[in-house]
Write a structure and sequence with these properties.
34% of the residues lie in helices and 21% in strands. The protein is an alpha/beta fold and 399 residues long. The protein folds into 2 domains: 15-190, Alpha-Beta Complex (Maf protein); 193-398, Rossmann fold (3-Layer(aba) Sandwich), CATH 3.40.50.
């Protein structure tokens, strides 16, 4: 076998220039490295003036560590999905440390590189960058057995630094260090203004037109609170949307005798926000439907945005409405939320679930009487679906 030898004049973008340009634009950076590319952190950290720009650097290396950061087990760890979640987490941490939404930059690099044993899959690097107005993902698949681990690490770090260079609209390319057939592919979603306002918390709700799968046009009412009153709202992550969701919506429309609107919150109680690429992907599933993007991570926030509305949900969500774990562990807060839901919601339409192959009747769930009195429970005769979004994501990851 002929081993191709790269042109080992490998050198990073000049860190002094990069730091100066980021400082000139008043940017504040948090960078996360998982599985490779940590050389980018040391490259920046040893540059004079870096304290003006870099707020934090994180290296969650084990899967358990990544799961802890992202609020649950991941289907994949070197992927666009994982990299984007880590980049959003980094962006949020930059804001937490005092950067404004416009100043904050989150960068993550995830990699699956040469190891002691042979890898079954590709050697690859995925780098994500998150700012208030854009999500950018760069992909690089490396030829196997053509470089040392050190050389692959170097390219992973370079790709992370190149993403930072893009923030300053500078030009920098590692293309000359790649073998024939290797290339950096970039997916970028520049957010509409309404999405940016939602992302930066200057807006709570955005109505989205989904007339065609490619549409991301948004509509805004002069009085958005009035426009969201008295709806039938089906909230969820819809990751992905599947036939079970669609059947639930059709049955709910028959029960409520009104059309169902979908709601997707970009915020989550215990996970990073959704990035713009993720939002784009979720919206493309809802052709011809009305969907609301919100910042309503909790049910009480949904009540604020959709007053006097009826809410469609699965049994899992229904049980969580009274679970103190979702109210900071406070029994008093959970009881207060239950009283408000029972008083202010125009009703709950609750669908059962399949657990361990058996259908659990939603009317038999352990829940406060006030919630049960406000609910219409859909029977197994009316609805049963053994499919879940989690199962679909896991199958996709295995594929």
């Amino acid at each position: 076998m002929i081993v191709m030898t790269p042109n080992h004049s490998l050198s990073f973008p000049k860190s002094e220039d990069l730091i100066r340009r980021l400082a000139d634009e008043n940017r504040r950076v948090v960078i996360v490295s998982s599985g490779g590319g940590s050389e980018a952190i040391s490259h920046l950290a040893t540059t004079p003036g870096v304290s003006e720009v870099m707020l934090e650097a994180l290296v969650p290396y084990s899967r358990h560590s990544v799961d802890s950061f992202l609020g649950g087990k991941q289907e994949t760890y070197c992927s666009s999905r994982a990299a984007r979640r880590l980049a959003v987490l980094a962006w949020q941490r930059a804001c937490f440390y005092g950067a404004t939404c416009e100043q904050a930059v989150g960068v993550s690099v995830t990699a699956s590189l040469k190891s002691i044993g042979a890898k079954k899959g590709d050697h690859r690097v995925v780098v994500a960058l998150q700012t208030f107005d854009c999500t950018r993902v760069a992909y690089l698949t490396l030829q196997k057995n053509q470089r040392s681990r050190t050389e692959e690490e170097h390219l992973a770090a370079w790709l992370a630094l190149e993403s930072l260079v893009s923030v300053t609209h500078g030009n920098c390319s590692l293309a000359k260090e790649l073998f024939p057939g290797e290339s950096v592919d970039v997916d970028m979603m520049s957010a509409p203004l309404a999405w940016q306002e939602l992302f930066t918390n200057s807006r709570r709700v955005v109505g989205v037109q989904t007339a065609s799968p490619e549409s991301t046009d948004s509509f805004a009412e002069e009085d958005p609170v009035a426009s969201t009153t008295g709806r039938v709202i089906f909230s969820g992550s819809f990751d992905p949307l599947h036939e079970g969701h669609l059947l639930m919506a059709r049955i709910a429309e028959e029960i409520a005798e009104r059309p169902v609107d979908y709601e997707l919150s970009v915020t989550n109680v215990d996970k990073p926000m959704l990035d713009y690429v993720a939002v784009r992907g979720r919206l493309m599933q809802f052709s011809g439907q009305r969907l609301w993007l919100t910042r309503a991570a909790t049910f009480e926030e949904k009540l604020d945005i959709f007053p006097k509305s009826t809410f469609v949900m699965g049994a899992d969500t229904f049980v969580r409405l009274s679970d103190p774990r979702y109210y900071g562990g406070s029994n008093a807060a959970a009881e207060q939320a239950v009283r408000r839901i029972a008083k202010d919601a125009a009703g709950l339409i609750v669908f059962g679930r399949v657990r361990g192959g058996n259908f659990e009747d939603p009317s038999q769930l352990n829940a406060p009487a006030a919630l049960k009195n406000a609910a219409y429970f859909v029977s197994q005769r009316e609805f049963r679906c053994d499919l879940s979004s989690t199962q679909l994501r896991q199958a996709t990851a295995r594929g």
